[in-house]
Design brief:
Blueprint: H1 2-37, H2 43-54, H3 57-67, H4 71-94, H5 98-117, H6 128-148, H7 157-166, H8 168-174, H9 176-185, H10 191-210, H11 218-245, H12 249-254, E1 306-311, E2 317-320, H13 321-326, E3 329-337, E4 348-357, H14 358-365, E5 373-378, E6 383-387, H15 388-392, E7 398-403, E8 406-407, E9 417-419, E10 433-439, H16 447-450, E11 462-467, E12 473-474, E13 477-486, E14 492-499, E15 505-506, E16 508-509, E17 519-528, E18 531-541, E19 563-569
Helix pairs in contact: 1-4, 1-6, 1-11, 2-4, 2-5, 4-5, 5-6, 6-11, 7-10, 9-11
The structure holds the ligand Nc1nc2c(c(=O)[nH]1)N[C@H]1C(S)=C(S)[C@@H](COP(=O)(O)O)O[C@H]1N2 and molybdenum atom.
């Protein structure tokens, strides 16, 4: 009996493996079809997208807090784990209820199809990858199961004897496809005879051991699994390659950026104190934080890109990329901040942007009175609501095409995004922008507003300690404390630091090119004595407002409070 249990356990593992391989085939084929049709319609990505949009706010906040910018990887990983468990379960089911297992796979295909075709930028064929993947996966599962558990295997001794007697018959007739597949594994010519021999040798052994045969056909399983993994791998890789064919990176590389009509002077040398571990004044593009809901980067071809400005305007506008490039372009140094940036957090970065004045374009369109919101939309359907008065008040609100001297990186909105100094990204910084509808806050809601965030999001005055690192151990003696502070479109006038709730000390401020960027600060002479110390920082902006210690969480309109770190001095 012990033998019997061990065998049925092995049997169950084998069935789960068959299910996993069939699942991999489904995803691989789905990926291949998505590569041909639309990369965003790949089953896992589509389900991920749908999950992002339908996840309750609290859970999303928790995910961002816990996983930071890795939240996408964690989400996709989670979906893959769930799918793997389901696939393994369907494998177990497939031995006895193949019809049910097929139905199960098709249901999953349907879920993927619905997710893919309800995306805002879905094409008409976007259900195909999931459905096709599920169908081929179901077929693969049947094939593998039939190879590993040939008919008669479960039917008891008599039928087994019949199988044995008819030799090749039971095996050969049922699925030419699987046998064909085996050729690919290379045991060619004497395969048929060999297979028959194995069968004849094996069945009696099973019967001797347990009376009722439960052991699977190892060779059948192995060849099925190998063939399945090969199909999944080849299809998946081909799909990725095909998706890459659609990539606009090559178009981006060809772009020659026009010169700005009014170039800015160079960034003042004194803007960057160049201290090790202090955030550099200009954040290199590769280090710039990235926040968006896109699971695959939108690939927007500048040759076909258009921006449509409509709604409450006298003259609707349509702009092509070339037309935008021919407008007088201006440069602006602007620090972006995410509303999800907690006190002391990393979702803030500074760049020199190049773009066309959004206010000028809106003036040409003629904004009608009563309009107070620009509802901008990206290719992937994300929306943002920006106050009209802020954009029109003379600040450098841009339709930006370049970031730190190069065309926008794909992750930062290529080919065109909005940049509006002084507003959190979720209400201002639409990447991959294709549409601006001029309208009213009391009539429409943007993506994050629907999900509980404030309709308007002016950036709150904040400061952050970059060095020493919070939680680090440092050596006793004269120690430098430094960081950044920001109050975009107001400007930072003072930064103060205190240790262990002692007196506030004025920090020395670095230079800034304007009022729309963060500002580095440093306190040079803290005499660090052995023990644990708390360091706190607060900034005062140019309106005279000094940060208070009152903590507010990021939701609904941005965090407040003093950044406070603990260091151990030895
Ligand atoms: N299309 C699109 N644009 C978007 C977002 C998005 O999810 N989709 N997120 C916004 C948010 S919340 C922020 S903070 C900024 C971040 O810009 P970055 O990724 O270039 O740093 O982009 C904004 N623009
Ligand atoms: Mo954000």
């Amino acid at each position: 009996m012990k033998d019997f249990n061990a065998r049925s356990r092995a049997d169950a593992w084998a069935a789960a493996l068959a299910g996993l391989v069939a699942g991999a085939v489904a995803l691989g084929v789905g990926q291949l079809a998505a590569g041909l049709i639309d990369p965003g319609a790949a089953p896992v990505i589509a389900v991920g997208d749908a999950t992002v949009d339908r996840t309750p706010q609290a859970l999303k906040d928790w995910a961002i807090r816990t996983f930071g910018t890795n939240d996408k990887v964690v989400l996709i990983g989670g979906i893959v784990v769930v799918l793997a468990l389901v696939a393994a379960g369907l494998g177990l089911l497939a031995r006895r209820r193949p019809g049910l297992a097929t139905a199960g796979l098709l249901v999953f295909g349907l879920v993927g199809a619905v997710a893919a075709s309800t995306r805002p930028d879905a094409g008409s064929l976007d259900a195909v990858p999931s459905v096709l993947g599920a169908a081929v996966g179901a077929w693969a599962l049947r094939l593998i199961v039939r190879r590993a558990w040939p008919p008669g295997h479960y039917a008891g001794l008599d039928q087994d004897a019949a199988v044995r007697d008819s030799g090749e018959g039971a095996h050969g007739g049922e699925d030419a496809g699987a046998h064909g597949g085996e050729d690919a594994t290379g045991d060619g010519g004497h395969r048929v005879a060999g297979h028959g021999d194995v069968d004849r040798a094996r069945y009696p052994a099973v019967m001797r051991a347990g009376g009722r045969p439960h052991e699977f056909d190892r060779r059948g399983l192995l060849t099925g699994v190998v063939a399945g993994v090969a199909v999944a791998g080849v299809a998946g890789l081909a799909g990725r390659g095909l998706a890459g064919r659609l990539e606009v990176g090559a178009e981006r590389a060809k772009i020659a950026l026009p010169r700005p009509a009014k170039p800015l002077g160079p960034i003042p040398v004194g803007a960057d104190l160049r201290l090790k571990d202090l955030s550099p004044f200009i954040t290199p593009n590769r280090d710039f934080y990235r926040i968006d809901t896109a699971l695959v980067l939108p690939q927007v071809d500048p040759k076909t890109w258009k921006l449509k400005i409509h709604g409450m305007v006298d003259r609707p506008v349509e702009l092509t990329y070339d037309q935008l490039l021919r407008r007088p372009l201006r440069e602006a140094d602007v620090t972006l901040t995410c509303v999800s940036n907690d006190v002391g957090g990393p979702y803030v970065g500074n760049a020199r942007w190049l773009g066309a004045s959004l206010a000028d374009i809106l003036r040409e369109a003629g904004v009608q009175s009563g309009a107070d919101m620009l509802l901008s939309t990206s290719t992937d359907g994300w929306t943002s609501g920006t106050p009209v008065d802020v954009v029109m008040d003379g600040r450098d609100a841009l339709l930006a095409i370049a970031m730190n001297g190069e065309p926008l990186p794909l992750a930062h909105g290529f080919p065109v995004r909005q940049v509006v100094p002084g507003l959190y990204g979720y209400v201002s910084a639409t990447k991959w922008i294709t549409e601006i509808k001029v309208g009213r806050y009391d009539q429409e809601e943007a993506y994050w507003t629907e999900r509980g965030w404030a309709p308007k999001g002016p950036i709150k005055t904040e400061s952050r300690i970059d060095l020493p690192r919070g939680g680090s151990t440092i050596r006793a003696g004269r120690t430098r404390i430094a960081g950044v502070a920001w109050a975009q479109h107001k400007g930072i006038d003072a930064v103060e630091v205190r240790v262990d709730k002692g007196p506030w000390r004025q920090a020395r401020l670095a230079e800034v090119p304007g009022i729309d960027t963060w500002r580095q600060w440093v306190v040079d002479g803290w005499d660090a004595t052995p023990g644990e110390h708390t360091i706190e920082v607060r900034a005062t902006d140019a309106t005279g407002y000094t940060q208070t210690p009152d903590y507010a969480p990021v939701i609904p309109d941005g965090a407040t409070g003093w950044h406070s770190i603990l260091v151990v001095v030895k």
